[in-house]
């Protein structure tokens, strides 16, 4: 994984905690004196989830359905087809 992240931290001692699914948790204490850059590598840690439940209520997911029918005259239809 490659990525670039930028955060502003106040001067002094800061504790960074990085957590993500599939990445080993990283805790890093940094002391900020002035502007700078801190590079670090994250270690992959593939985790298998025991169970995943996905639920949906079809009546709540669809708020509005819009359908439309448009008739094209044959002359316009041919122009539309030929332009592609």
Secondary-structure blueprint:
Layout: E1 12-20, E2 23-32, H1 58-61, H2 74-82
Antiparallel strand pairs: 1-2
Question: Can you put this structure into words, describing what you see?
Answer:
There is one protein chain. The protein is of the alpha+beta class and 84 residues long. Helices cover 15% and strands 23% of the residues. It has a two-stranded antiparallel sheet with strand order 1-2. A hairpin with a 2-residue loop joins strand 1 (12-20) and strand 2 (23-32). The mean pLDDT is 76.
Give a short overview:
This protein has helices spanning 58-61, 74-82; strands spanning 12-20, 23-32. With 84 residues, the protein is α+β, with helices and mostly antiparallel strands.
* Proportion of helical residues: 10-25%
Rg is 27 Å
Please tell me the overall pLDDT: 76
Number of strands: 2
Topology as a string of helices (H) and strands (E): EEHH
Question: How far apart, in Å, are the first and last alpha carbons?
Answer: 39 Å
Percent of residues in beta strands: 15-25%
Overall 3D form: elongated
Query: Strand pairing plus helix content: what structural class?
Result: alpha+beta
- The total of helices stands at 2
Main beta-sheet strand count, sense and barrel state: 2 strands, antiparallel
Low-confidence stretches: none
The side-by-side strand order for the widest beta sheet comes to 1-2
């Amino acid at each position: 994984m490659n990525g670039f992240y930028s955060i502003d931290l106040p001067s002094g001692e800061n504790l960074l905690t990085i957590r993500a699914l599939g990445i080993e948790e990283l805790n890093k204490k940094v002391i900020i004196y002035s502007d700078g850059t801190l590079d670090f590598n994250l270690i992959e840690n593939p985790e298998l989830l025991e169970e995943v439940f996905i639920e949906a209520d079809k009546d709540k997911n669809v708020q509005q359905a819009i359908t439309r029918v448009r008739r094209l005259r044959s002359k316009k239809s041919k122009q539309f087809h030929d332009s592609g």
